[in-house]
Amino acid sequence: MNRHLLSAADLSRDDALLVLDTAEEMAQVADRPIKKLPTLRGRTVVNLFFEDSTRTRTSFELAAKRLSADVINFSAKGSSVSKGESLKDTALTLEAMGADAVVVRHWASGAPHRLAHWIRGSVLNAGDGTHEHPTQALLDAFTMRQRLGRLEGLNVGIVGDVLHSRVARSNVLLLHTLGADVTVVAPPTLLPVGVDAWPCAVSFDLDGVLPKCDVVMMLRVQRERMHGGFFPTTREYSRRYGLDARRLAMLPDDAIVMHPGPMNRGVEIAAEVADGVRSTIVEQVANGVSVRMAVLYLLLGGDLSAGSEDVA
Ligand code: CP
After folding, report:
1. For all residues of the chain together, what is the average pLDDT?
2. Fold for domain 134-280?
3. Tell me, which fold does domain 8-132+285-305 have in CATH?
4. Is the pLDDT confidence value at 83 over 90?
5. Taking the domains of the chain in order of start, what are their residue ranges?
6. What is the pLDDT of residue 312?
7. Does 134-280 match 8-132+285-305 at the fold level?
8. Residue 260: pLDDT above 70?
9. Closest approach atom of ligand 1 to CA 54
10. 50, 54, 282, best to mutate for ligand 1 pocket (most atoms within 8 Å of CB)
11. Which H or E element spans position 102?
12. Nearest to 220 by CA among 195, 237, 201
């Protein structure tokens, strides 16, 4: 594996399967009375978040702690960033404190790539602008494999605000690497320029795509990134692209429903669908911890053979 995880495209098929297989081992730690391994003892992981997060930040923190790393949580709010300190100076300051890995979320697409040129430790992209979110794609693939038993040949529909979604791009790249067939479904206004070059099909017709899906992944409508009118009204968007009980019935019987969170209930997904038996949304969150443990372990070269008895 590369030293950094910046893009889902950094992962070969073997790399991705190694992460998923390692995450399965890590998941067993959650069932133990002491949910801790000594594998990253003495290592320091910095969570460097310039954008809000609930799931990603807490699961990276929990993952690093379960591997016995020291964790520094840095939020741009309340830091010297508000006094004008640059990303580079912030990163070099944290590295001077001994960071072995920096987990970065930033509003600017490409920020983790810049960071990787400046610091000696590993850089893990925890979401950069509208670009990529590779660990989300890994936890989504892990969840699909756990529920459906395979990834090769799965038909996956990714639906909604593809334009602003780093989750969509990383999922398309990773699922293609792992042999799944992806269709992105959105109104024309919510598809990025260049989507034709992505390794997936493109459709505007959700009702036409749903009957073929093993997995339907609903995307959040990212209002905070919208400056202008991308659809006439929220009601109209939901009518054309929302997943409600009527549309759920169009899916094959064993198909699953995913959402990376946070959700706009009643907009891209109805509450009864989000909370229904086909929904994997809560599992995705739990799997995020195991997958991020696997990524930290593999990038930082931890020692899984070390026992857990001597963890303080
Ligand atoms: N899925 C996801 O990235 O959620 P957060 O923004 O809460 O981290």
Report:
1. 94
2. Rossmann fold (3.40.50)
3. Rossmann fold (3.40.50)
4. no
5. 8-132+285-305, 134-280
6. 37
7. yes
8. yes
9. 7
10. 54
11. strand 101-106
12. 237
